[in-house]
Amino acid sequence: MIRKQIAMFSLMLGFSTSILAIDEPIQPIKPVQNINLGQVELGKKLYFDPRLSKSGFISCNSCHNLSMGGTDNLKTSIGHNWQQGPINAPTVLNSSLNVAQFWDGRAADLKAQAGGPIANPGEMAFTHTLAIDVLTSIPEYVMEFKQVFGSDKITIDEVTQAIAEFEKTLVTPNSRFDQWLLGDKQALSQDEMAGYTLFKESGCVSCHNGEAVGGNSFQKMGVVEPYKAKSPAEGLSAVTGKDADRFKFKVPTLRNVEMTYPYFHDGEAETLTEAVDVMGRLQLGKKFSDIENAQIVAFLKTLTGDQPAFLMPILPPSTDMTPAPKPFE
Amino acid sequence: MIRKQIAMFSLMLGFSTSILAIDEPIQPIKPVQNINLGQVELGKKLYFDPRLSKSGFISCNSCHNLSMGGTDNLKTSIGHNWQQGPINAPTVLNSSLNVAQFWDGRAADLKAQAGGPIANPGEMAFTHTLAIDVLTSIPEYVMEFKQVFGSDKITIDEVTQAIAEFEKTLVTPNSRFDQWLLGDKQALSQDEMAGYTLFKESGCVSCHNGEAVGGNSFQKMGVVEPYKAKSPAEGLSAVTGKDADRFKFKVPTLRNVEMTYPYFHDGEAETLTEAVDVMGRLQLGKKFSDIENAQIVAFLKTLTGDQPAFLMPILPPSTDMTPAPKPFE
């Protein structure tokens, strides 16, 4: 019934029903709903506030940089005291669509994720208690938390809730591929269409599907051929304790993949060409020709959507009571 | 003649002529003029682009953070490989009003300054040549440079020109003190007015004057009493080679000083209260009472102006040809 209504609606608009999103394994990104704007504005400040780190130098945005596809574009990230992170920073864009957070899925949702890096000694190297101490020393924050959450005392639960609510807004609709899904047959070139056909027919789409073109399952890295990793990361087994889950990682979203280089959980693939080649061989037992590879890459680049557009937040200043950051201790 | 016209205009608006800006040693921030908007938009991207650093992690905004008063709010900055910088990062806000750039004035203007940190081994640790290689590998940048500068080849001269042009827009008009200067007698409280009177009558204003409330001269740190510095920085003498210029530093702007903590070239003063106390004793031979100190601090907080408001820039992605950053080499 719904399908019929959509078909009729499409005909009214002059679109062919054959290219309706409903027939495709990838769906257009839906507008965000049920957003608490107060939490979003507060969470945006917190996302950009390096005072949630021990050094006063690292914020969420340091490694999930919203100017750069929600990543740091590094193989593995730089943490407190220039420590080298163990894994590639996944994009925060469209991360609300993930089945779970982190490569190994150890956080159920964005809120559970947000507290992790703050207290990770290799990342922001702070503690939740110290972070709350900092925020509580800043009257503008105290007032804004009170306004948004109605409580007198700032809690880490509120901090992560606000950051998660901001992150929920970081979806990237309106990519050329979504325009095509929504009925604009001219949105893709012949090569891009050929790439999408290859993407579907070769089996890429069996993992990279849905609204986020991934993010909704855990899969073994190295199905047909083993993946020779330099990284010690073992993926889902670190969470479940099951040997069968070794080297299973959350399938990354391919939305904005042109911006989220380098690729894989260890960041070892520098280019899309390389990533497509490795995925074809190791996951599908298929060696794409140069032309096929280029077509798939051309398709992948149509997944770049509208990037988050917002005013750079201005952070409330510290006060005489605010504990000073300790970058060199 | 002009003064008379202003007086008449003020009378028409119901303002008293006695508080006209023209009679004060501090002037309101003037609107920015003669701006090249193409350069500004390009410069904004470059200002936020960490690919101008060896690590791919440090941008201009890392240490001159526009969410935080144009500073990093650290005693001394964090550079490549977590090196500790030798000096406090001065604010980029209103820096176009400075007589010269850097604490020791070694750069004549913003353009001359902008190239410094990129190539400084302790800061962004890159070279101008490598930075140009990165930008040249990114077609969107090549096109934008061509559009803005009309040339096919990106040069470091254009890079620093664009960054400087963006920085020229980072003025902060409309502080409560400027509103007062412009005739709104209600803009300041009694304490703030008392603080301003003290600021003038005690002699603070002899160095902190003009549009930026500083930034227009070099003065010795420690006039009446010597300043016991832990920092080895010697200031202007490093530039002029003159012994008489030892410990002379550019007088910092006091615009937005509430946001630009900690204070002094070495960042040793954590609070405004401490900074006012030290300045009073060492520069003026005057010990402010607690009440006087608080009044001066109250006045200083009226110098916080409208912070730069702009959309977070989205950076063009690297390509297969872009040299990868080297954070851990």
Descriptive labels:
homodimer; 329 residues; mainly alpha; Cytochrome Bc1 Complex, Chain D, domain 2; 2 domains; two-stranded antiparallel sheet; 12 helices; 36% helix; 3% strand
Write structural notes for this entry:
Chains A, B: It is found in: Periplasm. The structure is a homodimer of 329-residue chains. By secondary structure, chain A is mainly α. Chain A is built from 12 helices and 4 strands; from the N terminus they run H-H-H-E-E-H-H-H-H-H-H-E-H-E-H-H. In chain A, the strands form 2 sheets. A two-stranded antiparallel sheet of chain A has the order 1-2. Chain A has a two-stranded antiparallel ribbon with strand order 3-4. In chain A, a hairpin with a 3-residue loop joins strand 1 (78-79) and strand 2. The radius of gyration of chain A is 21 Å and the shape is globular. The N and C termini of chain A lie far apart (65 Å). The interface between A and B is large, with 45 and 45 residues.
Could you give a short description of this structure?
Chain A has helices at residues 2-13, 37-48, 60-63, 110-119, 128-136, 139-149, 156-168, 176-181, 190-201, 237-240, 272-284, 290-300; strands at 78-79, 83-84, 218-220, 248-250. The first copy, chain A, has 329 residues and is mostly helical. Chain A folds into two domains: 2-30 and 173-303, Orthogonal Bundle (Cytochrome Bc1 Complex, Chain D, domain 2), CATH 1.10.760.10; 37-168, Cytochrome c-like domain (Cytochrome Bc1 Complex, Chain D, domain 2).
